[in-house]
């Protein structure tokens, strides 16, 4: 059993859980939205997407974010997933991050979208 991120309660009033694929998706989300320095014993852990909220949205920001996200995923989750593609687009005030990956243990492909 893997605890669901963000912490939630199930319909039975217990801690919500998720399967392995959902847990990996949750770990990707945690990585992307954790700022470096927030984890005590892992000061370089994080994708820092939350910090981008205060940056002017531009094509340059999207390109830089794509590079940083792909590097963070490979560094911290590379033993669990193979990153197939990272696409970052800016749409007005919204930054969209699309991650295509393969779970190494099952060889299943997933595409997930994260926005800020």
- What's the CATH class label? Alpha Beta
| Strand/helix succession | EEHHEEE
Count structural domains: 1
Our measurement of the CA-to-CA distance between the termini, rounded to an integer number of angstroms, reads 29 Å
Helix content: 25-40%
List key phrases describing it.
116 residues, alpha+beta, globular, 2 helices, two-stranded antiparallel ribbon, Nuclear Transport Factor 2, Chain: A, three-stranded antiparallel sheet, IraD/Gp25-like domain-containing protein
Polypeptide structure, described:
- The chain has helices spanning about 20-35, 60-75, and strands at about 1-5, 15-20, 80-90, 95-105, 110-115.
- It has a single domain (about 1-115), classed as Nuclear Transport Factor 2, Chain: A.
- The chain is globular, with a radius of gyration of 15 Å.
- Helix 1 (about 20-35) packs across helix 2.
- The strands form 2 sheets. The protein has a 3-stranded antiparallel beta sheet with strand order 3-4-5, with helices on one face. Strands 1-2 form a two-stranded antiparallel sheet.
- It is α+β, with helices and mostly antiparallel strands and about 120 residues long.
């Amino acid at each position: 059993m893997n605890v669901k991120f963000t912490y939630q309660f199930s319909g039975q009033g217990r801690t919500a859980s998720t399967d392995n694929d959902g847990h990996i998706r949750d770990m990707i989300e945690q990585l992307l939205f954790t700022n470096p320095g927030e984890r005590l014993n892992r000061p370089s852990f994080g994708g820092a997407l939350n910090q981008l909220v205060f940056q002017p949205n531009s094509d340059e920001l999207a390109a830089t974010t794509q590079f940083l996200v792909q590097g963070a995923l490979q560094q911290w989750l590379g033993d669990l997933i193979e990153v197939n593609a990272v696409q970052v687009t800016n749409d007005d005030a919204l930054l969209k991050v699309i991650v295509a990956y393969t779970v190494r243990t099952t060889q299943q492909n997933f595409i997930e979208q994260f926005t800020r």
